[in-house]
Amino acid sequence: MSDAFFFSYGSLVNRATHAYTDAHPATARGWRRVWRHTPVRPMAFLTVHRAPGSHIRGLMAAVPGDDWRTLDAREEAYDRLRAQDQIDHHLPHRPDVALYVIPEGKHGTPSQKQPILLSYLDVVVQGFLREYGADGVRDFFDTTDGWDAPVLDDRAAPRYPRHQNLSRPELRMVDEALADRGVRIIPG
């Protein structure tokens, strides 16, 4: 791809987790997020699945020099798909845009043994809050499936390698959203 960008919908929305500086708010049409796990990682994380009529907010960022190696290594459980016709943005041109997706049949439903890490979810929510405000956080929770998955409270000793410090109001926002959905929290 030339003039290549990727569309992020999870932890990469949080600019503090990467060095891709040419980044812009964007929306992917026809997709929803879902919590999944794979044999590649011991914990659950986000992927997307096709959902006609739906859309998800995220962040679109340029890949300098079309050097995908670092990003592909970070997203090793995913396939990189071309998605420029499904991404809405405010750039004056139509760059090539990739979307990382875990293919059907290569992921499973999170469980007690493969829970969502609270330190990962904190990073995702902080990213949406910074990009889109409180409305963006609500939209993230509303456009993500799989909230019946357990969440491991690892805040005291974060397991997510790119964890971030959240303010008390940010932590409260995450906790309240999980409580509103009746998500089961597993002590860390």
Describe this structure in words.
The protein is of the alpha/beta class and 188 residues long. It has a single domain (4-187), classed as Hypothetical upf0131 protein ytfp (Roll), CATH 3.10.490.10. Helix content is 23%, strand content 35%. It contains three helices and ten strands, in the order βββαββββαββαβ. It has helices at residues 69-74, 118-142, 168-180; strands at residues 4-8, 23-38, 41-62, 79-82, 87-88, 96-101, 116-117, 144-145, 151-153, 185-187. The strands form two sheets. Strands 1, 2, 3, 4, 5, 6 and 8 form a seven-stranded mixed β-sheet that branches. A three-stranded parallel β-sheet has the order 7-9-10. Strand 9 (151-153), helix 3 and strand 10 (185-187) form a beta-alpha-beta unit. It starts with a strand and ends with a strand.
Properties at a glance:
188 residues; alpha/beta; Hypothetical upf0131 protein ytfp; seven-stranded mixed beta sheet; three-stranded parallel beta sheet; 3 helices; globular
Topology:
Layout: E1 4-8, E2 23-38, E3 41-62, H1 69-74, E4 79-82, E5 87-88, E6 96-101, E7 116-117, H2 118-142, E8 144-145, E9 151-153, H3 168-180, E10 185-187
Helix pairs in contact: 2-3
CATH class: Alpha Beta
| Helix/sheet category | alpha/beta
Distance between the termini: 42 Å
Work out the radius of gyration.
Answer: 16 Å
Helix and strand pattern: EEEHEEEEHEEHE
- Average pLDDT figure: 94
Uncertain stretches of 5 or more adjacent residues:
none
In terms of DSSP E residues, the strand content is 25-35%
Proper CATH architecture:
Roll
Biggest β-sheet strands, sense, barrel: 7 strands, mixed
Number of domains: 1
- Regarding quaternary structure, what we see is single chain
Q: What is the CATH topology assignment?
A: Hypothetical upf0131 protein ytfp
The dominant shape is globular
Q: How many helical elements? A: 3
Residue share in helices?
A: 10-25%
| Number of β-strand runs | 10
Name the CATH homologous superfamily: Gamma-glutamyl cyclotransferase-like
